[in-house]
Structures are given as C-alpha cells and as structure tokens.
Structures
1.
Amino acid sequence: MQALNISATIRLDFTPVTRWDEYHDAFVAAFGLPAFYGRNGHALLDCLSSLRDADTGMCRVVVAPGEVVLVQVDGLAAMPRELRESFIMTLELLSERCAAREQSSPIVLVII
C-alpha cells in the first residue's frame, strides 16, 4: 500500500448545516472559494476540480499532482438527506472528472 502524500488538512464542518446556503458557506470557509463562486452544485464541482490548478484562483487550497488534501468532515450524518446526498454526488462526480483526466482525486475524506 502506498502512503498518502498529504499537503493540507482542512475541516469541513457540517454540524450547523440545515439549509443550502449554510452548505455552501461551509465549502467557502473550508476551501477558500472565491467571491464569484456560484453557490450551486456545478460551481462547487468546478471549484473542487481545480484543486490541482493554482492558476484558476478557484480555491485557496491547492495540491500538486501526487498530493492530496485530507478533509475532516464533521456532522455529515446529522445533515438533511438532500444535502448529504448532494455532498456524496459531488464527490462521485469529482472522482469521475479526475479519472477522465487520468488523475487521482485530490481529496481524501475522514468522516467524524
């Protein structure tokens, strides 16, 4: 088994999240998304897909090829079902996008 090359660790706190605006606020706070972030699923996927590209300015968090960001997720089980499902779908789509680019996902989750 190959060791993970963790370049950053961040906390994505869903504990207080019960509404869509709070869901997007959590991502803005954790990843440093830009002021022009569209606050929808497509915009979130675009921002997370640019974690390996510092030139886009889509995320404050950037990881080099071969590196990952370790994301500690708190409060996932307590979130409303539709928000939790959106989170899971976003991660699945991110993984598919990375695979299409022949890259590994830049995110490794630890769910608390």
2.
Amino acid sequence: MAHANNFVTDKFGFTTALIGLCLIAAHSGTPSPLFPLYSEQWGLSPLEVSSVFAVYILGLLVTLLTCGALSDHIGRRPVAFCALLIAATSMLVMAFADSLNALLIARVLQGIASGLGFGTLGAALLDYSPASRHGTVAMLNGAVPPAAIGFGALLSGILVQFAPHPFQVPYLVVASLLILALIPACLLKERHPRRPGVLCSLVPSVLIPKEVRREFFVAVGALLASWALVGMNLGLGASISKTLLNIQSPTLGALAIMAVTGTSSILGVLTFRFNALKVMVLGCAALILGSACLVLAVYTEGVAVYFIASIIGGIGLGGAFQGGLRTIVERVPALQRGGTLSSVYLVSYLAFGLPTLIAGLLIPSFGLKNVTYGYAGFVMLLSLIALALIAGTSRQNRRTSKG
C-alpha cells in the first residue's frame, strides 16, 4: 500500500511540475504579440521595445547566476512556489501597466520567475520520475519550454485580436492560471534531500559538474544557435511579420512563432530515441537552411516562404536544443540537477536575449530589414560553429574506439 501511495505522490508531483514548467514558459511568451502595439500606442522607439524584451533576459540571467542551484539546497517546493507567485505578479503588473517603466518592472519580474522556475521545475521532473524514464524526461525538458512559449504567444495573439481590452486580457488569463497552479505547488512532497551550503550557492556561479563537462562543451554551440533563433522570433518576429511582410493579424503573426516552437517540440518527441549527436547535426543544418529561407522571405516579401522558414527553423530548434540538452541531462548527477539545468538555460538565454538587444540598437541606423539579414547570418555562423564542435567530438570518439 505504501508503494502505491508513493506512486500516486510521484505522479502528482510530476504532473504539477510539468504544468508549472508549461506556465512559466508560456507566461514569458505572452507579451510578444503586443510589442508592435506598444510601439504604436505609446510611441516607443525600436530601442525601447528591445529594452522591454532585454530586461527580461537581465532578470533571468542574474537569477540563474545567483539562485540557479537554490532548489538543490532548500528543496523544489519553496522555489517552485516563489517562481509561480512572481510570474503571476508580473502578469498583473503588465496588465495594468501605463508606462514604459511599469513594463520594464514587469519584465524584470518575469525574468526572475523564469530563472527560478526553469531549472527548478525541470529538475523536479527528474526527481519525480524513475531513472529508467530520465531519457523521456530529458526530451520533455527540451520540448516543453519552446512549445509553451509559442503557445503563450499564440494565446496572447488570439486574445489581442478578438477579445476586448487587448492590453489587459491576455495577461489576466495567464495570471489566473498561474495563481491556480500555486495550490498544487503547495502540496508537493519533497523528493530531493536538503543540503547545507545555501548561502554559498547564492554566490554568482555557473555549475557544470565534471561528469558532464565534455557533453556541455559539445552542446554549447547548438544551445547558442537554437536559442538565438528563438530570440529573433520572439523579440523581432512580430515586427518582421507586420512591418516587412505586411501581416496585420496578431494571431497570424503569433502562428509564425508557434510554427517554430511547435515544430521544435514535435521533432523532439519523434527523435528522442535517436543518437543525440546526430539529432544535433540535423538541427544545426536546419537552422542554416531556415535562416536562409527567412532572408529569402524578407527579400521577396513572401508570407508563404516566411512560414516555411519558421517550420524549418523549428526543426533546427528541436534538433539543436533538444539533442544538446539530452546529452547533458541523461548524465547529470542527482544532487546537482537544478544547478546544471540552470547553467544550460543561462547559456541558452544569453543567446536568446543579447543579440536581440544589439538588434534593437542597430535598427535605427540600419533598418529592420538589414538587421534581420544580419541576425539570420549570425544564427548561421553559430550553427556552423556548433557543427564544427560536434565533428571534433565525433573524430575524438572514433580515435578512442580504435585505441
């Protein structure tokens, strides 16, 4: 009977962590369709719009550096609860924002919530599943965040277009879901033993256990390339679709984002039993092709080509990010799961936010079209670097096997 109760508790904990991870990711994508509207209604410059996007990354990166391993010491439940609570607060602040400063505060809160939530809830999925299922959990850790980010953007786009009060309703809907998620989060049973050293864990650091350092080095190029693409879609995608491709529907613009993130998740599900290095190679090649198609879409103002580019880019994101994540998660020590996953997201979100901020600085001087071309070229370059890292590892593995 005790075994049965433990199984139910594990199932409850796994489901709660999975829903929490979905909501944390979805809430981060909710503002994307609204960026062009803020620009129009409030007269924000491209740099100010990019700063609204970038301060989210600042809050997230600082949180990952300082609190990335916090749940490894004090447990998953308190950190997960705080992440969901701060996320809900950020949505409420954004719903009633009436100035750029209010938006910036809300976005910083979003970054803090994401920084606490991604690593903690991703680690909780591993805690609540048997070791035999960790390969599947690694796939979920790679598939869920991009898909949920895209779903958050799509839901927001639909509500912006069809619901009343477009600047409030999307945020209030997501805030309600986050508040509801606080209830099961309070009931989580800890499966992760508490450890001393909580104060030392708050010193800014990046945790890469020696057991996975080689895998981390191989995957870093793919992580950077794939999340640079996500940054372009979430940070500039709405402006590209509306300004350069004349897509006036917020829903259609959000569908282009969902095409990237949804395809990514589908690919992760289809390929999680395949060799991770081969999946990364597929992903990096698709990132190069997808970026080239994006350039063609902007040059020709072709909406159909733009959606094709989004789907190919989604294949790239799914292969490069999820292949890289799998090589790390499947080997990470149990007591360092939260900190290691936070380090993965730290690298990913650097690529997610920094190029977008630079793009915002360059748009006034070079124009959105030229910056889009340059951004696509940057994703191609990162993908080529990732392929070089993977090729080097493959050669080393062959030498080792021969020796």
